[in-house]
Amino acid sequence: MKKFFSLLLTLALVLSLAACGGGGGSTPPAADNNTTPPADNNEPAPADVTITVAALASGYEEAYPGMWQEVCDAFTAETSVKVNLICDKNLEDVIGPSMQGGDFPDVIHLATGREKGLTEQFIKDRNIADITDVLSMTVPGESVKVSDKIVGGFTDTSVTNPYGDGKTYLAPMFYSPCGLFYNAGLFEEKGWTVPATWDEMWELAEKAQAEGCYLFTYPTTGYFDAFLYALMYSVGGADFFNKATTYAEGIWDTPEARQCFDIIAKLASYTNPVTPAQANDQDFTQNQQLVLDNKALFMPNGTWIVGEMAEAPRAEGFKWGMTALPAAKAGGAGASYCWLEQAWIPAAAPNLDAAKQFVAFLYSDAACAIFAKGNAVQPVPGLTDNLEGDNKMFYAIYDNGADAAMGNFAAYEAVAGLGTVREVFLDPVNGLVNGSVTEEQWISDVKAASDQMRANLMG
Questions:
Q1: Are residues 230 and 286 in the same domain?
Q2: pLDDT in tens, 327-346
């Protein structure tokens, strides 16, 4: 992991990007001031305070049911602050209506990249509280500051600092190496080698197709964010990645961009055709099931997939495997995007001080130990040392030669008629697969949208 963390620190120094543009979630009323003065220590919350924490019930919660409730109970035991927990797979649908009416949770754990784009909407509307002062707070129940509990670089990226103003708005939570997941047992049975380059990938596609198996599937087009970031990094390195994610003029006319477009378009031609119809937040596990049933070889995903599909049926001899995206050329390095979930505080949270205490507690030894029961790994030093089984293999991907990519497309002001990053860059993949969108049409739309995004960058 030393190589991984050094790579992340290097990336953090060069990435001054902003988080990706908003989606179609709820639009809360704008706050007058998101900034709070820095704090050097914790101000204890009144004993009668009850905060509301809204957390996504993801694959980690499925792996260890009650994970979030246990953390909330531990926080209450330490601080006497009571917690009303909302934990749901469709969190946006549960909290959205009440937020429309002005009733906001105090803390929300919901990452960017979701279909409904709720977190992106809050970023775009500048309705997330500045939590820079949380980094200097003492972790409840401990004697160390929050900043001492977070691996260097994780609070200096566009994922946590979306406006490029040197302030932290989103707390880095569970992180996961993302890559291509597959049935290692099938590869052993067939004597296939995991492709190291895209040319080898296309050769494997023909072999698999001859045996009635498609090369590829994806849960939803949202999973192409991590895929595209890693692809851009492997094709053009940090320089191309940084220019592309800030919509630099002419970037989509470069050979590197063309190679990225071509790879995704060709991959679409080898994708199981049932994928687009199931590529939504309700049916996405059916696409993941295609890999477990040997109806597709690879899918982009993160380490949470093991818990998410723990009870799903699978082909005889199934074993999880994970690989970085193949190298762009022979002798090059593959790449894996570091997916980072976020916890944040709405600017209109009714109990701001207690909310900040809760965020600080998320990095306590007690909270980390509970999250670890669900295989949720936070960017806290030492947590990867005790990993076992599949997770040990997954998190070793950077030690095995993959480059680490981290950062998001830059945030931009809302513009009438301008789609979200997901709508412009990722959703057209469904059309590439079912034939309703051509590669050239996709590229043209990306260029036109990028011009508007660049002209309306937040800052």
A1: yes
A2: 998 888 889 998 889 999 99
Domain holding 168, by residue range, is 16-176+339-386
pLDDT class for 11, splitting at 50, 70, 90? very low
- Number of domain units in the chain: 2
CATH at 291: 3.40.190.10
> Which residue, 386, 404, 422, sits at the end of a domain?
386
**What gap in Å lies between CA 62 and CA 275, rounded to an integer?**
24
The arithmetic mean of pLDDT across residues 374-383, rounded, is 89
Instruction: Specify whether 257 is located in the same domain as 331.
Output: yes
